[in-house]
Every structure is written in structure tokens, then in C-alpha cells.
Amino acid sequence: MDFFLYVALHIGQIEPVKRKLYLELAVQLGSDQSSAYLTKGSGHFEAGYAGSLMSGKANDIMQSIEIRIDSEEEAAYREALEYICGLLRLGFPQAYQLKLKSTGKHWLPVPSLAKSKLHQFFANALQYEALFPLLAEYAELAMKEFAWYGDVESGVKSVMPGTYAVFGLGLYSDAYFPQVRRYMELVDSEHQSAQDGYAEAFIESHGLNVGGMLTFVSILLAGNDMAKPVKGIAINTPELADALIMALEDKADHQREFVIYRIFGSEKKFAAALKQASSPLKERLEALMK
């Protein structure tokens, strides 16, 4: 039985559904330890938490957190975020799933994101600007390469821990552009594509400007191989072209080509933009191809 439970816990890091099945089978075989795992977790974390405006439960074995928001206000989400951050600092798995009871229903303007309870929770919290620093702190604790939240079934909608907080902060304030860039350096572009849709949302929030070019290029570079050109953008001033050249100056040739494709589209479209450009923009665009 000890070995069976050992297998269940380790396989659960990759296949949480199978872990739950194994633990339930162990309960049927009379394992009290398995029953405790299912209901309370390993015992390393407090199973329940009662705040003044919210309550929570945590189970590290099942990699699940439950949050109940009793009052839709900033203080309640502050309590909830501090509770989750506290768990992560103690080693709670970043790749958790969230069960949420809340009357607030907000979503980030990023169509590629699943409308899950985790997404809902962070979109709700992002309604309060005073919580932005705490959300950024959470994101730093949560981000982990080659890990995914458990809020959706494994697949195209899976996202790295910290995604909802980072995406929201990056849309609402340029103060968090450095964190967006750190996120894009970590994200596994081979197995996640939500950042492809984020590029367009980023432009809709901030426009394409010199100050945001470095961050925008980092978003493009993190794109999946199947990512399409971003709609509604144009490098139409010498200043924008110079900012793009600077953002690409230390990048490999294939990275430069990928960014240019996502901005201009096909080589034919780039040639058309070059033909229509006048000096000094024309010379700047020509420099992009060198």
C-alpha cells in the first residue's frame, strides 16, 4: 500500500486525474492515509483558513485551493491573495487548480484565455489598482517554467502559473512591462499559445509606441510556431522603426525573421510597405533586413 500511494503521488504531478483515481481506490482498500490525502492533503499546510472577508482551503496533494469571497471588495481580494502567496512561499505547488465562490465575474480582454475560475479570480482582483503590487508579488512566486495551472484540461488552453496576473498587469500599467518580459522568457512556446492572442490585446491597450516596443517584441518572440501576424499595427514612423531595430539588435536571425513576419506578414507585404515608405522611414525599414 505504501508503494501504491507513492506511485499515486508521483504520477499525479503529470496526471492529476489518475492520481485521484488511485487514491480513491486506496480508500476502498481501507487506506486511512489515502483518505487523509484526499481531504486534508499532506499535513504540511493548514487545511482551512478563515479571514474576515473570505475563507480558504488548501490541499497540496490534490494541488487545489478553494476561495470563498464573502464580500466583493478590495480587502477581500487582498486577504485571498495574501493567503495564496503565503501558501506558495511555504512550497505549495504552483500548478494548482482553484475552486472559487464569488459573485464578481470579470475577464481579461484576451480571447485566447480559458474562462476558468482562476482567470475569474485574478480578473476580479485586477479591478483594484491598489492590489497591483501584491498581484505582481504573487506572479513572481507563481511563475515556473514547464508548469501549467490545473484550471483546464491539458491542451491548448493550458497556461503557465502566473499568467492571469501578469497578463492583466501588463495590460493595465506599463510599470509591469519588465515582469511581462520575464514571463515571456520563461513561457514554453512549444506547449502554450495564449501569449499569441495577448500580443493583440497588448496593442489594443497601449498602442504601438517607442516605450513599449521592447516588451512588444518579447511578446512576439514568445509566440508559438503557429502564431499569426498581429492585426492593426504598422511601423510607420522613423522613431518606431528605430525602436524595433534596437529591440532586435541582439537577436538571432531566425528571431528577427519571426518578429518581422508577425509585424508585417509575408515578405510580399513587407516589400509593399517598403515601397510605400518615404525617407527616412524607408532607410530604417531597409535596415531591418540587414
What features would you describe in this structure?
This protein is α+β, with helices and mostly antiparallel strands. 52% of the residues lie in helices and 7% in strands. The chain has 14 helices and four strands. The chain has a four-stranded mixed β-sheet, with helices on both faces. A hairpin with a 4-residue loop joins strand 2 (54-59) and strand 3. Helix 2 (16-28) packs across helix 3. The longest helix is centred in the first third of the chain and has 16 residues, at 74-89. The protein is elongated and about 80 Å long.
The low-pLDDT segments are: none
* Quaternary form: single chain
Query: Mean pLDDT across all residues, rounded?
Result: 94
Structural class: alpha+beta
Number of separate strands: 4
Q: Given the C-alpha coordinates, what overall shape results? A: elongated
Largest sheet entry: 4 strands, mixed
- Radius of gyration, taken over Cα atoms and rounded to an integer in Å: 22 Å
Query: Residue share in helices?
Result: 40-55%
Give the neighbour order of strands across the main sheet.
Answer: 1-2-3-4
* Number of helices, where a helix is a run of at least 4 consecutive DSSP H or I residues: 14
Order of helices and strands: HHHEEEHEHHHHHHHHHH
Share in β-strands: 5-15%
Note the gap between the termini. Answer: 64 Å
Structural key phrases:
alpha+beta, elongated, 290 residues, 14 helices
